[in-house]
Amino acid sequence: MASLTKKELQKKYDEYKAQGLALDMTRGKPGAEQLDLSLPMLDLVTSKDYKTLAGADTRNYGGLDGIPEMKEIFKDFLEVSSTDEVIVGGNSSLTLMHDTIARAMSHGFPESKKPWGQQSKVKFLCPSPGYDRHFSVCEHFGIEMITVPMTDKGPDMDVVEKLVAEDKSIKGIWVVPKYSNPTGITCSKKTVKRLAKMTTAAKDFRIMWDNAYTVHHLSKEQDELENILEACKKEGNDERVLIYGSFSKISFAGAGVAGMGASASNINWMKAHLSMSTIGPDKINQVRHARFFKDFKGVQKHMKKHAAIIAPKFDAVIEILEKELGGKKIATWTVPKGGYFISLDVPKGTAKQVVKLASDAGVKLTAAGATFPYMKDPKDENIRIAPTLPSMGEIKLAMRVLAVCVQLAAAKK
Ligand code: PLP
Questions:
Q1: Domain of life of the organism in this record (predicted)?
Q2: Which atom of ligand 1 is nearest to the CA of 248?
């Protein structure tokens, strides 16, 4: 589409503003139609039928690391080699990640000379743009964050290898390895190998491998991710990686089941700490999930139904970006094969302004900067688009407004 003058753009913007819109594109939540897919699950545990396959009573305490049938599903889901390498926990993987860091701070890992919290400085590498809540966990515990560029193959490994080799206060790195939040990229084979192999000055270094979108493909064309635990074991770095995932965007967000995968010794470390904070997880919900999905194949089959609902929403976002901004050299965006986000880069120094313009016109977007540590996008250019929750009509309207805001901010620059 031909470029409009600043005056024409302003007129268009004012017209949208006058409509009193109230559209929300902030968080990556499943839409109601997606949540409906899992409703039958709610009828699978009844007052007469609530036992595990082995006949355990789910109404009572116990089973710290999950019921056996759910551990089987998580073994395949997290791609570990045995159920000894799995904990099936409560409803949230973020809680498991937070608690891992909390325990490292208070007690340290088995190889830590002192708990992280008693060391003068603890730093984490934060590939960015990345997931805002990983960064808030670091901030919450006073862990210094170092921004590392995210490439289309994963974290910039030249930067990562150099930093971890020379600074022993760098204790870990966050990675969303598949269909990453927000860029949608998947770590290449080489990136996984380098992460597994690299020399780290810190002996208790951990990769926080948040595989939140492992089965969240948008079509048949899918990204493949190398098995990180196997890669680490091959390099003799068995303890390096902690893998997380959940059913939040498979069944019910906030009422799914979360799990952690790692070497058996890391799992035992986590279980010892877990036993101080709980006598066991919600096994009733685990039975519900195990009965509904049956096995990992059942999970994969279910995700095709999600894709049928959300892929058209992603397509609509991309189509409008192409139509309104394509060829104008003012913005670039990702076209992910899975996950929950599209990442939009607008002209340097205008992301905050674009988000404000959109907000004033009734379109709420994730705060500019949120995808970077300390909410500071050094180039002020990244905006995260979350298309799953709004209806198709709302998405199209919101994207048209956003496209005008991007052009207006670019014209004002
Ligand atoms: N990890 C990533 C990368 C996410 O994008 C999200 C939610 O948006 C989560 C974790 C949260 O997962 P959970 O609901 O299991 O805590």
A1: Bacteria
A2: 14
Residue having the nearest C-alpha atom to atom 4 of ligand 1: 212
Residue 29 near residue 253 (C-beta atoms within 8 A): yes
Task: State both tokens at 221.
Answer: 């064309």
What pTM was estimated for this model as a whole?
A: 0.97
CB 149 within 8 A of CB 163: no
Tokens of 362: 């009734």
What's the per-residue H, E or C state across 75-119? HHHCCCCCHHHEEECCCCHHHHHHHHHHHHHHCCCCCCCCCHHHC
DSSP 152: B
Look at residue 355 and give its three-state secondary structure: helix
**Residue 74 DSSP symbol:** H
Which residue's C-alpha comes closest to atom 5 of ligand 1? 181
Q: Is the ipTM of this complex over 0.90?
A: yes
Element (H, E) at 402: helix 392-412
Name the closest-CA residue to atom 6, ligand 1.
212
Angle between helices 157-166 and 189-197 (to 10 degrees): 0
Q: Tens of pLDDT along 29-61?
A: 999 999 999 999 999 999 999 999 999 999 999
- Alpha-carbon Rg for the chain in angstroms: 22
Q: Let me know: does 368 contact 289? Beta carbons within 8 Å.
A: no
